[in-house]
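Hi Q.,

Before the meeting this afternoon, I wanted you to have the farnesyl diphosphate prediction in hand. No need to reply - just skim if you have a minute. The sequence and ligand are here:
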Amino acid sequence: MPEQNLTEKIGTLDTDRIPRHVAIIMDGNGRWARMRARERSEGHAEGVNSVNRITRISSDLGIQYLTLYAFSTENWNRPQEEVDTLMHLIGWTIRKETPDLVKNNVRIHLLGETERLPKEVQDCLYEGVNATAHCTGLNLQLCLSYSSRWEITRAAKLISGLVKEGKINPDEITEDTITSHLSTKGIPDPDLLIRTGGEERISNFLLWQIAYSELYFTPVLWPDFDNNAYVDALIDYQTRERRFGKTSDQVSAGNNNDN
Ligand code: FPP
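Predicted structure with the ligand bound:
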């Protein structure tokens, strides 16, 4: 779509209802490559362009949190060559993009078992985390060696440790106790979860946090997910009535704060 039409489309968004937090399952890199008789690694490389594009427009639109599922715990089971390619692609991209992220006031956070990543990749990533630590615009969460079941298991261990040490009584454990022991501590739950690539599943991503998120599935493959496709998702999100378990009448009366 020509740029002018994108601008018009963005103009139709209700600026008061821009989601605070968008989470994305970036799927379809492999199929994008296969359709062009290219290597899967080329699909991932093309996927990086989408990451850059979607980060930029999210920041421009005033979205406060963007969480990207870049490498799941289960992705370690892919062929070693693909794992190595992805690891280095992610590390080098962050190193290369860090100056621009700083310029655009984007702060990087890492979620997941990052100690499993190769040391040189960790170095690139933590350089980015440190260099953007002062940024106050978009918070960009990169989920790496992340899975929701890993995260919830870890939270259970941390909380049991506190019980064992007598620092907390089991009766005092609340939903907030669990929330504050997840890697997303301090980050509001996603308002909108997008999955590209045509599959309609959650694949072990933010299971606790998406309890009341709006879900949006699109057949567009991640490398083809352009600003137009993203704005379409945001427009669709703005048509949803978020009831958080209440009735439509209650929501209309403005009583929609609780889960
Ligand atoms: C899923 O597509 C995609 C991934 C497992 C990797 C996603 C990673 C990137 C887009 C690079 C991210 C880079 C940064 C800097 C965060 P798939 O390979 O499963 O595709 P398929 O389902 O078509 O095979």
